[in-house]
From TrEMBL:
The gene is lipB. Gene3D superfamilies: Bira Bifunctional Protein, Domain 2 (3.30.930.10). This is Octanoyltransferase. The active site is at residue 175. The keyword Glycosyltransferase does not apply. The lineage of its organism: Bacteria, Bacillati, Bacillota, Clostridia, Eubacteriales. Pathway: Protein modification; protein lipoylation via endogenous pathway; protein N(6)-(lipoyl)lysine from octanoyl-[acyl-carrier-protein]: step 1/2. The keyword Acyltransferase applies. It is found in: Cytoplasm. One of its GO terms (biological process) is protein lipoylation. The record marks 141 as: Lowers pKa of active site Cys.
């Protein structure tokens, strides 16, 4: 029998605001006031630095970031540095792993599986790489992943490049690897992709992978 999972779509949301919202949901999930919740959103242009990250992986001067309107934020997710911005879907699942599997690797694999299944819908073959979480198409990364767990409640999650400005990735060493290429659904398909359709497909595949009944969108 499928457990229930709320879906919340925030549209374009400031990174710090989204982080605070996740922390609120964690407290509610710990108190069993809400079911598992999948938060979907986009961020304004920002570089986020994870627990293994370093500002030394930013390849441009601060003036370049200011000119482009790109903020920098240090956060408590796993991983190194990455870029978020318009045209990139963020999925922040708030899951009680005590009701799933209390294993970080299991969680990462499932996030990757959601993206891999979605890519098949667009006739693209995605795959994993050892020791660098995320999903690739060819030798190009299309989905980044960074997680955190508090009292076995997950937060942060994964990002999928849909119609993303890939030039902004040239400002960083993604995962600390300067030779790592990036791509998007738009680049692989040769034309812009309907972002609402992608969002709906993410919700569907998320429910299938995690055995959850995905509920209607809720207001924040």
């Amino acid at each position: 029998m499928y457990r229930k999972c709320n879906v919340v779509y925030l549209g374009c949301c400031d990174y710090q605001e989204a982080y605070s919202y996740q922390r609120q949901l964690i407290c509610k999930r710990m108190g069993y006031k809400i079911p598992d919740t999948l938060v979907l959103l986009y961020h304004p242009p920002i570089l986020t630095i994870g627990r293994k990250g370093a500002r030394g992986h930013i390849l441009v001067e601060p003036e370049v970031l200011r000119r482009e309107g790109i903020l920098v934020y240090e956060t408590d997710r796993s991983g190194d540095i990455t870029y978020h911005g318009p045209g990139q879907l963020l999925a922040y699942p708030i899951l009680d792993l005590k009701q799933h599997v209390k294993d970080e690797r299991w969680l990462v694999n499932n996030y990757e599986e959601v993206v891999i299944r979605l890519l098949k819908d667009y006739s693209l073959s995605g795959y994993r790489r050892d020791k660098c979480p995320g999903v690739w198409v060819g030798n190009r990364k299309i989905s980044t992943l960074g997680i955190a767990i508090s009292n076995w409640i997950s937060y942060h999650g994964f990002a999928l490049n849909i119609n993303t400005n890939l030039n902004h990735f040239s400002y960083i060493d993604p995962c600390g690897k300067s030779d790592q290429g990036v791509t998007s659904l738009e680049k692989e398909r040769g034309a812009p992709v309907d972002e609402e359709e992608v969002r709906e497909r993410v919700i569907w595949h998320f429910g299938q992978v995690f055995n959850l009944e995905m509920l209607n969108y809720l207001d924040k």
